[in-house]
Each structure stands twice: as C-alpha cells, then as structure tokens.
Amino acid sequence: MAGAGGGKTSLFDPAKALIRRQVTDLFNDASKGERPILRRGDALFAQDSVAWRVNGDVVTMMIGGVSGLLLQMLHPAVLAGVWDHSNFRADMHGRLRRTAKFIAVTTYDSADNAVAAIDRVRRIHGQVRGVLPSGAPYDATDPALLAWVHVTEATSFLNAWVRYAEPGMSCADQDRYFAEMATVAERLGAAPVPRDRASAEALIQSMRPALLTDDRTREVARLVLNQSMGSRTTDAASRIVMQAGVDRLPDWARHMHGLPTPLDLPVIRAGAATMARTLRWAFDQSPNRRVWPSDVTRYPDAASADHTR
Predict the structure, then answer these.
(1) Is residue 20 within 8 Å of 308, Cβ to Cβ?
(2) Which residues, at least 6 apart from 61, have a Cβ–Cβ distance to it below 8 Å?
C-alpha cells in the first residue's frame, strides 16, 4: 500500500502514530513550548556510539531513571539538595521529564547545544548548597557527589537496557557506554569518573558507607513510585515501569528503602518487556529516528506530534 507521498503505508500506522503522540506528550509540555529533541549528525556522540543505542530506548530509560533516582536519594547530600532546592513534591513528573530532556539533548542534539545544557546545569549546581540535618555542609558542585549521581544514573540506564533490550550485550560495549557517558560527567565537574563497568561498580560500593535512609528518603521514594501520569492507561503503564525500576535496584539498595520484591514480579517483567517491544515497534523507521541536518533547528509543528523527547 502506498501513501500520498509515494511511501509505503500500513494499517498499523495510525496505531503507531497514536503511541508516538502519547509518548511525546509524556516528555514534552507543549504549553511551555517544549518540542522533541532532534537527532543531529553533529552531536556530542557519534551515531554508532553505544550511547545513541542505549539512550534512545524510551521504556528502558524510564525504568533506569526510576532505579537511578532511588539510588541517588540514598546519599544524604543528594537528598538534601533535592529536598531544599526543588519543588519535587508538586512536580515529580516534571523532574523526571527534565532529566529525560537533559539526556536527550546531551546525547542527540548538536554538540554546541549539549555543552550549553551542561553549562546550565553547572550554574544551577552552583546555587545548591546547605546544611544536612546532621549539621554537615553539602555543596552540589562537590566532584565526588556529582560522581555518585552520574555513576548511579549510568549504571541504572545500562542495567535496564541489558535486561529489556540487549541481554547479550558484550562486556566491551558495556565498558564503551561508561567511557562515552564519562564525557558528560567530566564536563559537569564529577570526579572520579568511571570509564568501565568494573570501575563503576567499585565506585558504588565505595560510597555505600555514606548512604542512609530516613523519613525524607522514604517520602521521596513514595512520591517517585506513586506519582500519577494523568490517565488510567498511563498510570497502569507507570506502575509497571516503577516496579521494574525497583526490581533493577541492587538487593542492598532495595532493602535500605524497605521495598519488597513485587509478588507479581514475573508479570511486571513480562509487562515491561512487552511495553518496551511495543514502543520500539511504534518508533521503528519513524521520523523520530531520522538524523537531521544542522540547518534544521526544531521539528516542524505539523510533525512534532510524531516524535518523542
């Protein structure tokens, strides 16, 4: 079957377009003029990079985002920065959306725009400082603190990708992912920055003595795991993503949060795998996967509903 423009069409095209539109709305607030991020040939990472492969998978990035955030909040200084300097209680969805946008810009947008986004985050970090309940000072520009945020995030994204997209991913490609993502972490001021999986896991283990949970940690976890995405359908999908994120936590981190292994874990895993496959199907060969020339600076309005992030 051929479309008006001569391209092949399918009976499934309207369903694919609807799915893409729903995902686009999840990651972009149109009322604020937000539009999906263009994939650019002049991006910070090459098109054949592992970062391009991993960071564009919607479901695994959401699952990894949940487990990464739960890990990060176990560090009292990270928790304090969020608690004291953000409106997460009223806008947890917005926080997750901004994280997704930052990953998309630094991975797929032009290198200039990626560096500009990193510089904006550094300026924000420069204003985030205070005192912990223990009386110790904290500062978001602390290189070790930034390294903790980076390594938990990168590890969580990769773990979700391996579980739900590429179970046979080689150790070499996993190491490449950490080496590539180190580019962003170092520009943010993090140190030390792991460049392979073994170093990443060692860094996480070295930080465990500094981690703790309290009433504030539990409140943040509750808000993360019980947030509403706005409709019955998206909330059902959100529950699967949230529980899959809990499942991807290390056992010790799940125990610190007091989060039990879901009784319906096989159902959660099957649901997450199905959701991931469905979204890949919906976006396969869509304009979202196109690499755009440098003279195109934003998606045309007519096409914006057909893209994501």
Answers:
(1) yes
(2) 54, 55, 100, 103, 157, 160
pTM for the full predicted model? 0.89
Nearby residues of 205 by Cβ (< 8 Å), 6 or more positions away:
none
- List per-block mean pLDDT (blocks of 10 residues) for the chain, which spans 309 residues: 48 80 80 82 95 95 94 96 81 77 94 96 95 95 97 98 98 98 97 98 98 94 80 80 95 95 89 95 80 73 44
What's the rounded Cα separation, in Å, for the pair 299 and 308?
A: 10
Partners of residue 138 on adjacent β-strands: 130
Q: Where would I find the beta strands (DSSP E) of the chain?
A: 39-40, 129-131, 137-139, 291-292
Closest of 167, 155, 178, 162 to residue 72, by C-alpha: 155
Question: Residue 293: how many CA atoms within 13 Å on its side-chain side?
Answer: 1
Assign 3-class secondary structure to 41-106.
CCECCCCCCHHHHHHCCHHHHHHHHHHHHHHHCCCHHHHHHHHHHCCCCCCHHHHHHHHHHHHHHH
H/E stretch holding 114 reads helix 111-125
Tokens of 25: 């709305």
CB 81 within 8 A of CB 124: no
φ, ψ dihedrals at 29, nearest 5°: -90, 100
Handedness of CA 162, 17, 38, 102 (dihedral sign): negative
Q: CB count, 10 Å around CB of 156?
A: 26
**Tokens encoding 71:** 């890990």
Question: What distance in Å separates the CA atoms of residue 190 and residue 224, rounded to the nearest whole number?
Answer: 25
